[in-house]
């Protein structure tokens, strides 16, 4: 769960760094053994994450986020995170 909190905090910091963006979509659901959220902004930033408690101490988290760079390139990162680490795939 610590990973999920850190990732959400990073994404929110990234979002707030883009002050001109407005929220188009914001959904979240947090339960004891699972969670999911989605965020979409007017500046083409999108994020989705979901996770569930695999056993007493381990979370499995899957998600993706995408954005446009300042030079106009579109970047999409899809990832999983579990007790074996963070596993991203980057598309440009």
From TrEMBL:
Residues 1-17 form the signal peptide. The keyword Signal applies. Coiled coil: none annotated. Keywords: Cuticle, Signal. This is Larval cuticle protein 9. It comes from the Eukaryota. GO terms for molecular function: structural constituent of cuticle. It comes from Stomoxys calcitrans. The keyword Signal applies.
């Amino acid at each position: 769960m610590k990973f999920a909190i850190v990732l959400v905090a990073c994404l929110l910091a990234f979002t707030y760094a883009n002050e001109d963006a407005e929220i188009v979509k914001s959904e979240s659901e947090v339960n004891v053994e699972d969670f999911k959220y989605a965020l979409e902004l007017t500046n083409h930033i999108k994020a989705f994450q979901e996770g569930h408690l695999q056993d007493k101490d381990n979370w499995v988290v899957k998600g993706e986020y995408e954005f446009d760079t300042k030079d106009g390139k579109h970047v999409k990162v899809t990832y999983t995170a579990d007790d074996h680490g963070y596993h991203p795939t980057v598309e440009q």
